[in-house]
Amino acid sequence: xxxxxxxxxxxxxxxxxxxxxxxxxxxxxxxxxxxxxxxxxxxxxxxxxxxxxxxxxxxxxxxxxxxxxxxxxxxxxxxxxxxxxxxxxxxxxxxxxxxxxxxxxxxxxxxxxxxxxxxxxxxxxxxxxxxxxxxxxxxxxxxxxxxxxxxxxxxxxxxxxxxxxxxxxxxxxxxxxxxxxxxxxxxxxxxxxxxxxxxxxxxxxxxxxxxxxxxxx
Length: 217
Hints:
Order of helices and strands: HEEHEHHHHHHEEHH
Largest sheet: 5 strands, mixed
CATH class: Alpha Beta
Oligomer: single chain
CATH superfamily: Glutaredoxin
């Protein structure tokens, strides 16, 4: 076989094996634009925000894929977790996350919270139950109590009640890119595709940030 034919054959095989191309992602199909853009915590970087709930089985299933994605996350991307609150029964676990965040122990309790509910199939019904789980992970009980009742934790939990209003979210997990775009596994076509859509949207926002920085010079 001639060299040029070999190269063409190789390119054809690579294209056939490649995942859905960026050009294949369409607004209104694989992702949606928010009705109103929301502020982000770090305007000079691209923010990816996950809306989740610890008791959600879909969030639990998505977590390993998300973990792998975070391991390779570019430095110009900021990842933010935001527990959703769609009703009173959701508030306890949202407050658990924000308490962990306030104590700087998210890495120590995030997966144990998921595992307790889904792997062990137990329930967390009261703040005392949540505290016991934290203490089991080596967190001081008094520090937990102080953080649980702190103003920042209460304020953030209250804001999580507004996820539907702010982000137009009706279920979890949902990913928001730079306060502008929303996607879900249903829209994207699966959990893995959802992360591919996120990579595509991050690329779009990266170009916007670069253009803005260039124009400001």
